[in-house]
Amino acid sequence: MTSLSRERRLAWDCACGNGQATLDLAERFARVWATDASAEQIAAATAHPRVTYRVARAEDSGLPRESADLVTVAQALHWLDLAPFYAEVTRVLKPGALLAVWTYLSPQLDPPLDAAIAAFNERIVSYWPASRRHVDTGYRTLAFPFPELEAPALEMCEHWSLDHLLGYVRSWSATVRYRAQHGADPVVDLARALEPLWGDRERQHSVRWPLVLRAGRRP
Prior knowledge:
Blueprint: E1 10-14, H1 20-26, E2 31-36, H2 39-43, E3 51-55, E4 68-74, H3 82-92, E5 93-104, H4 113-124, H5 132-136, E6 154-160, H6 162-170, H7 173-182, H8 186-198, E7 205-217
Parallel strand pairs: 1-2, 1-4, 2-3, 4-5
Antiparallel strand pairs: 5-7, 6-7
Helix pairs in contact: 4-8, 6-8
């Protein structure tokens, strides 16, 4: 994605959260402007000499007109008010500069482990916020302001123990809502389904997240 940027002077990471994607950008751009509407998230971000963190809404970045070579949104586009955000993107980007947004889909494991994860997803799907549907469709149903570039197929991959995976799934907001409503932890049943298939609990299996990228240049 960064290889498509014609210049690498300034990137704006919008809705940066605690800066996980921001730090990767800082390795590739001379300066990174990282914003989030949450002061708590910004306070938790890791400092970097090339990164300026700022509490700001997506439609009011604080950047000068036509100053950015790249604007990114990682796993957060579905939370933004798109029309004013896209107006700010158009104002901030240089002509020919790049907007890139991406999201990752539900985790996938090798069979037969994947069937247990799929059943768990079906159990909790109605407990996700309504905007989650945009993640599941890879943002394809959301408006995009510029002509789009062809994006490669991408994925993230980790190797996790069973307890690591269960802890991750237990942290999902849908899992938390299910537990609050029913007074029971659905991850207990997921663990029972995975344990006889996993082998030693410390054994590491691959966990993959397909990534969907949408990118386009400001005319």
